[in-house]
Design brief:
Layout: E1 6-7, H1 9-41, H2 49-85, E2 91-92, H3 93-123, H4 127-168, H5 173-190, E3 193-194, E4 197-198, H6 205-218, E5 219-221, E6 227-229, H7 231-238, H8 247-259, H9 265-271, E7 273-279, H10 283-290, E8 294-295, E9 299-304, H11 306-329, H12 336-362, E10 364-368, E11 376-380, E12 386-397, E13 402-414, E14 418-419, H13 422-439, E15 442-444, E16 449-451, E17 461-462, H14 465-476, H15 488-500, H16 505-530, E18 534-541, E19 548-553, H17 558-569, H18 575-580, H19 582-595, H20 598-608
Parallel strand pairs: 8-13
Antiparallel strand pairs: 1-2, 3-4, 5-6, 7-9, 9-10, 11-12, 12-13, 13-18, 14-18, 15-16, 16-17, 18-19
Helix pairs in contact: 1-2, 2-5, 3-4, 5-6, 6-8, 8-11, 11-12, 13-15, 13-16, 14-15, 15-16, 16-19, 17-20, 19-20
């Protein structure tokens, strides 16, 4: 604050409302223009060289119009922040600073007078004189305290002004650069005609400046090269309706999401949700549940905005494919450092794509009553897996005395991205842990597994690999186990014992269903491994889901391997089929091997590029 500082909240709010109204009218006009351009741009009935040139011009105009609308939306958000920040008190810098000075000076004078009268009281000869001087000292001390309180009051007004100034200091800056780039774009478009034909300058500065405006608005590059989010701007963008967020903004959001620190992911994820309800549990319901180990707390609920997440995934997928393209042309032996960097970069991208997909599938999240964001925590473990913790209605506490809570803690673990040969090894480890958790009492050996139950009075029953392979083939309806034969027996031992020793038919059917599900998961992992895909294993500990799921993407050599398999076996499987329907691909190959045993060798040759 200085002597020329002045703040009138009423005037600012009136001016802000007026500016917002004008900007909204401008946006409506821009939307009409965009709609007309889109209708014209997407008219496939018009085909000509001139129209192709016109399409490019319309595309450039569209980019400029979206930038103008984005700048307007940014200013509207800033005006709303300004309105809510200015308070309700007129603050005049000259008056506040003057009154502060007067109060401070008066406090010092009153303290000096108080000290003088206190000294006279000590040296007074007569009792009445001592009492008089003491009263005068006390009076001046009280006056000094009043002056101090008055000084603090004026100081508080100064602090309030400085706080408002600090809060609003960065407003309207990002839109200024964007408007300048859009204006330069309009000038460039108008001057890009040659002999009546639009010839765009694809290297024009305005294009780069406009792209930089979107990125610089929400990305902060630190001194060490790491990237963090400008959360004020991220919040402003994600607070807009899905259709109001431009493609360039989604690109910038995707960039910051892919590069932010793991501990920031939960905040970003929360901003991709819409608050759906605030639930105030009646006090008597809360009290009634306590005696029955039922915890019902007040809570709020948020739902993933699927439109926003899908648009983000679209941009992240493009980046993933671009990174894959670069990875495929870099020679790992010639430029090992670049190759490793691109590999790691794509692994991170795929893991974060999986995180968004998992969150989208969960759909609904809870948190504290009327909190700003849902209760979500995302941390990275030593194994570079991401663990997301969130709230849902479920059992908590010990198995002996469980408590049902409407804010019970659930977790989802997303593994580090696995590639090629590492996939089926990871699937094996996951299957071992899953079977141990499902059946209990399992000890793992190299060639056999042993299973102890009460029914056998402690007797250990073991099966050989061959016996187990035959058993699982019979139970799961699989005669050709392929590469998985070496893995399935470690599971099949429990499969055989768990089903054969079951007390009831229902339990036997449940166990068989579980085993078959695990076997299908191993099949999927084997196909992903053979075709050099990139996957994340997602393990859930949720109220209605505790299984392990595989999320897959094509890998560095997937396209080449598919081409070789198609050529060797005379089939036409696609990348999409390998990623989304691995069990169908496995069944197809199994059928071909049944029809002609030579196809097994052909398949192995194609997979191993022999």
């Amino acid at each position: 604050m200085n002597e020329n500082s002045y703040l009138n909240p009423t005037n600012i709010q009136e001016e802000s409302n007026s500016a917002i109204s004008k900007l909204e009218k401008d946006n409506e006009a821009i939307r009409i223009a965009e709609s007309s351009l889109n209708t014209f741009f997407n008219d496939n009935e018009i085909q000509s060289e001139a129209f192709a040139s016109l399409r490019q011009q319309m595309s450039d105009y569209m980019a400029v119009l979206q930038a103008m609308r984005t700048a307007n939306n940014s200013d509207i958000a800033d005006f709303n922040i300004l309105k809510s920040s200015v308070g309700d008190e007129v603050l005049i810098g000259g008056q506040i600073l003057e009154q502060k000075t007067i109060a401070k000076r008066q406090q010092q004078e009153d303290e000096l007078n108080a000290e003088n009268f206190a000294g006279k009281s000590i040296n007074a000869f007569w009792e009445w004189e001592r009492v008089y001087y003491s009263c005068k000292a006390a009076q001046y001390w009280n006056m000094a305290e009043t002056d101090r309180q008055l000084y603090l009051l004026w100081q508080e007004k100064e602090n309030k002004y400085d706080e408002i100034e600090g809060t609003t200091n960065g407003l309207f800056t990002s839109s200024a650069a964007m408007r300048a780039a859009a204006k330069a774009g309009m000038t460039s478009i108008a001057g890009a005609f040659q002999n009546g034909v639009y010839v765009p300058d694809v290297n024009a500065t305005w294009r780069t400046e406009l792209a930089d405006c979107y990125v610089n608005r929400i990305v902060v590059v630190n001194e060490d090269g790491t990237i963090t989010a400008n959360w004020k701007e991220v919040e402003k963008i994600l607070a807009k309706p899905e259709e109001e967020i431009t493609e360039e903004e989604y690109k910038a959001l995707a960039l910051v999401y892919m590069n932010m620190a793991p501990e920031e992911l939960s905040r970003f994820l929360g901003l991709c949700m819409d608050r759906t309800k605030d639930v105030d549990i009646p006090w008597y319901s809360e009290m009634a549940g306590m005696g029955a180990n039922l915890v019902n707390e007040d809570y709020s609920e948020w739902t993933i905005n699927q439109g926003k997440v899908d648009r983000l995934l679209e941009q992240i997928s493009k980046t993933s494919n671009e990174t894959l393209g670069m990875l495929q042309v870099v020679n790992s032996k010639v430029n090992e450092q670049m190759y490793d960097m691109l590999k790691e970069q794509r692994n991170v991208i795929i893991q974060r794509m999986t995180l968004l997909k998992v969150a989208e599938e969960i759909g609904t999240f809870r948190g504290e009553y009327q909190a700003e964001l849902p209760t979500i925590s995302i941390v990275m473990g030593e194994d570079q897996g991401l663990t997301m913790t969130f709230c849902e209605y479920r059992n908590i506490g010990s198995a002996v005395s469980p408590t049902i809570s409407n804010l019970g803690e659930s977790t989802v673990n997303i593994s580090k991205t696995k590639n090629g040969d590492t996939i089926d090894r990871s699937a094996l480890e996951n299957a071992k842990l899953t079977f141990v958790g499902y059946f209990g009492g399992v000890s793992v050996a190299e060639e056999t597994l042993s299973f102890v139950t009460e029914e056998t009075t402690g007797e250990i029953i073991s099966y050989s690999s061959e016996q187990l392979a035959a058993y699982i083939a019979q139970k799961a309806g699989k005669e050709v186990l392929g590469k998985a034969v070496g893995y399935i027996p470690l599971i099949g031992d429990i499969a055989g014992f768990g089903v054969d020793m079951a007390i009831s038919q229902a339990e036997a059917e449940e166990n068989c269903q579980f085993i078959t599900g695990q076997f299908n998961g191993m099949e999927s992992a084997l196909i992903y491994s053979n075709f050099d895909c990139s996957v994340n294993f997602v393990q859930c500990d949720m109220a209605d889901d505790s299984k392990i799921t595989i999320y897959a993407q094509t890998g560095e050599n997937t396209a080449d391997i598919i081409a070789r398999v198609n050529e060797k076996l005379g089939i036409e499987i696609t990348e999409d089929e390998v990623v989304t329907s691995p069990n169908d691909v496995d069944s197809l190959i199994e059928q071909l091997e049944k029809e002609n045993p030579d196809n097994e060798d052909r398949y192995e040759e194609a997979i191993n590029n022999k």
